[in-house]
Amino acid sequence: MAVTTDTYMPTRRRIAMPRVKARHVVMVIYLLFMLIPIYWLVKMSFQTNREILGGFTLWPHNPTLNNYRVILTDASWYMGYVNSITYVVMNTVLSLAVALPAAYAFSRYRFLGDKHLFFWLLTNRMAPPAVFALPFFQLYSSVGLFDTHIAVALAHTLFNVPLAVWILEGFMRGVPKEIDETAYIDGYSFPRFFIRIFMPLIASGIGVAAFFCFMFSWVELLLSRTLTAVAAQPIASIMTRTVSASGLDWGVLCAAGVLTIIPGALVIYFVRNYIAKGFALGRV
Amino acid sequence: MDKVQNNKAWFLVLPVLVLVAFSAVIPLMTVVNYSVQDTFGNNVFFWEGLGWFKDVLTSDRVHAAFGRQLAFSGIILAIQIPLGIAIAICMPKRGFWASVCLVLMALPLLIPWNVVGTIWQILGRSDIGLVGYALDQIGITWNYARNPVHAWVTVVIMDVWHWTSLVALLAYAGLQSIPQAYYQAAKIDQASRWKVFRYIELPKMQGVLLIAILLRFMDSFMIYTEPFVVTGGGPGSATSFLSIDLVKMALGQFDLGPAAAFSIMYFLVILLVSWVFYTVMTNLDKTEGR
Question: What's the pTM?
């Protein structure tokens, strides 16, 4: 027996060592693959257009902040960020406000047509925005909401509300029903119970749902571009227009791109510990 | 979980219903309306019946776009799902480096889609882009604007870059939920790494993987912005996927009737697939007793 353990241990160690290394190698290669395109964008944002087109360089030889200055001092540029953030926040708040009670209903009660309703909601998450672009344009034009932040916020509820209901329902299912019952016995009314007791219990769920609402509203272009002209134009759409208009100022374009990454990066950083938890429920 | 029968719950669902009715049902009805009518302008409409549907069903252009779309979604799934699982297994399980990996991997997910397109548009150019330049140096003249194969490779790699992390994060979460006892039991049985994966990790990840496949299928089926920015659907129509073709038809040429008929069939295909997935998923939920 002593012999077997002696021979067993070293071989195991020898096998285990290279495997750990292989994992690291894979991970490093993958992260490089993730980061190199972003690095390239950042690099070009610090270069003048002449330097970019003048010759191939791996890093900016004369780094300049001029591209950022162009964006941050020109209202037609930076208002794009203000517009984008405005409708994204409006959409997130709106989606969560309607999704919370609905998710509670789905997680706690059986009612007429509940399963069909749930599936129908989900199908809206699957609906291609391209299908909705033209009818949205006509609908919001006819009710006088065209080119407003609320129009984009409402349009994005198309895919964000189903998503929020889905995520929140998963979290709420994990809260034992006895808590509800005890609260009712203690004389809590439904709204008071919901806000005082229930919402703090699923705070991480609300965070995760907010994260995904923010994310999908932030990255969407087709609907937000179709529904806006000047006053509520998102940054993404300003970028595409500048590409065709000003004869491709690559430096400014890249700087604008870098600035669109920053809000997302901040949000990820704050919710990094919850992301895995949200995914763990198997709901995205 | 045993739920109480209570039809008053409808009141809680009501806000969602009103909102979604406004943002989904009304527009969808407009589409249905257009799909059965024809117009010569001035808002005068004529009943067209199912004519547009017949046109679209027999149109070579739509068939080609559908074929391209299926090929694209197929390739995307075949690359991203195995790669995502592999990355999830390689990720550190906890601690500082796990957080670093999570944050870095999630970055591409939060970049606006047209910026993703711009990044790869630049990267693939042989004069200013890293990838295009590098390929040029080793003798491959990379031109995604002219060569359909290059355009396809660019779009596929871009999508892999953009979305593999989502699959990886889902699979990672699935792995995290496996109790340590399973691995200890496997160690006692001296199970090989492959067997641990095949009989413990894979079955436990089944649920999240189904969701990953569903999401990746749906989103790749609806892809619009990224290939539009990179290739504009070209060269020719080599990368005109369904959404790109649809937008060309509806907003570019303003062919409302055919575009509407096209939309409805497009939506029906997606609906059918999501129904199949949903059924499988709910059945899985029941058998697992979750």
Answer: 0.84
